[in-house]
Design a protein that fits this description.
Blueprint lengths: L3 H24 L4 H9 L9 H5 L6 H10 L6 H18 L2 H17 L8 H13 L14 H4 L2 H23 L4 H6 L1 H17 L2
Length: about 210
């Protein structure tokens, strides 16, 4: 892994997870299938390539569309803030082997629960949310999620947001593994837009 296509896919994964965070925070929920697809990336721990983390291009359609939108004229400032914060925390996380180990253990615990609670079951989401709280949430600056206070105060929604932020971090780790760096988003944005467009065209013309 490490070519420009892989980095584009990983960037799309971060954006897609952040979009789901927005939906839960603003509207109190998201499509169960969309949640399942994104949270499932947490359990793909030994991928053969970047795309296998997400299953197929169809599962990343919205993320690829967001890459094209966010890196052109009128980006969503909130999504941009989430992206920057997540990439910053991923760099810090790389220097914390104890937290990386704890995240791995938390994901394995959740994997064991999947025998009884398939994604996106509330119990499984709560387990992933706890892993986020005890690891990534201890790093600074903490990610501040904007939305309707009534939705964010709901424990189920708060847990879903944390689980999705953990999934966003999983894509950020993939981004780093593929050679992604924050400066590339600024200096190579046109190339990311072009590659996202090409992948979306492939999706439309594929079998």
């Amino acid at each position: 892994m490490g070519n420009f296509t892989d980095r584009t896919l990983a960037l799309a994964g971060i954006y897609q997870a952040c979009r789901l965070v927005q939906q839960v925070a603003r509207h109190g929920g998201a499509e169960p299938e969309a949640l399942e697809r994104m949270l499932n990336t947490l359990f793909i721990t030994d991928p053969s390539d970047a795309l296998s983390v997400y299953g197929n291009l169809h599962n990343l359609r919205e993320g690829l569309e967001l890459v094209a939108q966010q890196l052109q004229k009128s980006p969503d400032a909130e999504l941009t803030r989430y992206l920057i914060n997540i990439l910053h925390l991923e760099r810090k996380l790389r220097r914390k082997p104890d937290l990386l180990r704890a995240i791995g253990e938390g994901i394995e615990r959740a994997r064991g629960q999947m025998e009884h609670y398939p994604l996106p079951h509330a119990n499984l989401i709560a387990s992933l949310a706890e892993t986020y709280t005890s690891t990534i949430s201890t790093l600074t600056p903490r990610i501040i999620v904007s939305g309707e206070q009534g939705h964010l105060a709901n424990p189920g929604n708060a847990g879903t947001v944390r689980a999705l932020l953990l999934a966003a971090m999983r894509s950020a780790v993939l981004w780093s593994q593929c050679g992604g760096r924050r400066w590339q988003i600024l200096l190579q944005r046109g190339r990311f837009v072009e590659e996202a467009g090409r992948l979306l065209r492939d999706l439309e013309t594929g079998p």
